[in-house]
Amino acid sequence: MKTDDQIITEITEDTMLWQALKRSDKAAYEILLKKYYAIVLNYGVRFYRDKEFVKDAVQDLFTEIWNRREYLGDVVSVKSYLLQSLRKNIIRESSRLKWFREADKISEDHDFNVEFDIETYLISRDVETEMLKKLRLELDKLTKRQREAIFLRFNQDLSYEEITIIMEINYRSVVNLIHEAIKAIRKNWFTVLFSSFLFIY
Amino acid sequence: MKNYTNFSVEDFIQDAYFRQWAFDELNSDDTFWENWIHLNPEKVKIIEEAKSLVIALKIKPLDIFSESEISEGIEAILNGTQSDNSKVKTIRYKWLHIAASVTLILGLGWWFMEKDRSNNAYFDQITASDPKAIHKNNGRKPITFELVDGSKITLETQSELRYGNEFGDKKREVFLIGEAFFEVKKDSQRPFLIYTGKLVTKVIGTSFRIKAYEQDNNISVSVRTGKVTVYRQDGKLGNKQSLSTEIVLIPNQKAVFEKEENLLIKTLVDSPVSLNDSPKNTILAFEETKISEVFNRLEGIYGIKIGFDKEVFSKCSVTAHFNNENLYQKLDIICEIVRAKYEVIDGEIMIFGNGCQ
């Protein structure tokens, strides 16, 4: 978890590296690659569970950035640029694949796999399976876009502005997605949690 | 500190500092939230709800890709992008015959400029026309002054700094003999360039020290904050900033240029400092702590990457209390405990050893 100041410093540093990369600075490219490779990979695999497919997509993305470095534009945030590009590529590539084989298509209503850690937490606390089932049911009610927005905001520490870039939706929609998700969890989850004697600290 | 009095549950959830507290990630001596709750007892319910929601929103990490898979993936990309790619070449080739004549003229003009700049003639010219633009320190104490752009310079003894009276609107250029500490005012439109013989240091806004005495065998650039680019100025046609000679430095890293061998290397500063100056970082206690976590903490404090084989050292843990030891002393102690050695390679620390039982 990072504070707002840390996020801003990070964005400025990344932008400097990005400028250097555009001037063919391989060292800067390597720093960005090492910093974001795993993050981008783990984001991609949440859309599409084929490991090798996602690995290829990430390799293409980074290779393309180096090959096209002279033509790259300026970016507001390097991280959101990378995530947005991969997201686009995966969605496009997977629908193209559908013509060749029976691959699962991720279209407008793409998939986004997110599991909440609290289940593990509750299992470790010996919570009855009946209640877990109920909980999971409530969690499944979150839409995929809500899950993605929550993932980007709270797991990846991204700002609303960055999320608008990645998900290609407007600011208001991002705020709403996150707000609605929190509201839903708050309402449903809490009934489940506090109707038993469970306190999570 | 923010005023949290009117915060709703959702405001708290979105607050980074609050989330750190909810996840138990704050330093143990940071009692802000305990105090805050004590002073605002009517908010206890809101805080409790927000805290449990923060925990509820935590997403399970994926363990799909192993460490080795990730480093292999990075390696594959680096190999695939070695030197100039054939793809780019073919695109360039199409334009080559058109662009050739233009390049020649541009190139010549540029060469004359570069030539001038690489000897001191360029700077002599500046100084001749404007005597204000020279700072000399022949005294016994360092002197501190500000440049027109607001950058602060601390010039050590037997040192000299020259610059044009007014910087242009493209870049800020200065010429240094000797040693100085720079706190460069941020200006992304006008990078700050420091010429020291064959070495050029380029920054946007940051603080660092350069040592370039004429009688010394080497020139060094040590970074305190921000990022700095250092490259050789060869003055050859079309070789302004070749890839192999450019180095990006982050805090606590140092570039050393060996004049005779014409060699530019990246290493660490002699005494790395903690990146955040807060005193709570000086005391560091580990109790049976996994070595990966110990190195993580050190990386966080000094901003220096520590590389080690996670599998080999997976069974190692460390119990140690550090107070005023510097980074190297800490590493000596940790390495002693896990029977390892460390080396500074390319501005990073590498740990070598056989692991623990």
Please describe what this structure looks like.
The complex is a heterodimer of chains A (201) and B (357). Chain A has helices at residues 4-22, 26-47, 51-67, 78-97, 118-124, 129-140, 144-155, 160-167, 171-195. By secondary structure, chain A is mainly α. Chain A has two domains: 4-97, RNA polymerase sigma factor, region 2, helix turn helix motif (Rna Polymerase Sigma Factor, Chain: A, Orthogonal Bundle); 118-195, Orthogonal Bundle (Arc Repressor Mutant, subunit A). Mean pLDDT of chain A is 79; it is low at 100-109 and 197-201. Chain B is 32% helix and 28% strand. Chain B is built from nine helices and 18 strands. Chain B has helices spanning 9-14, 16-22, 32-39, 44-56, 67-80, 86-118, 121-129, 291-302, 327-338, and strands at residues 134-137, 143-146, 152-155, 159-163, 172-183, 192-196, 199-203, 207-212, 218-225, 228-232, 247-249, 253-258, 263-268, 284-290, 306-307, 317-322, 340-345, 348-353. In chain B, 26% of the residues are buried. The model of chain B is unreliable at 84-129 and 236-244 (pLDDT under 50). At the A-B interface, helix 1, helix 2, helix 3, helix 5 and helix 7 of A face helix 1, helix 2, helix 4 and helix 5 of B.
Short structural summary:
The complex is a heterodimer of chains A (201) and B (357). With 201 residues, chain A is mainly alpha-helical. Chain A has two domains: 94 residues, Rna Polymerase Sigma Factor, Chain: A (Orthogonal Bundle), CATH 1.10.1740; 78 residues, Winged helix-like DNA-binding domain superfamily/Winged helix DNA-binding domain (Arc Repressor Mutant, subunit A).
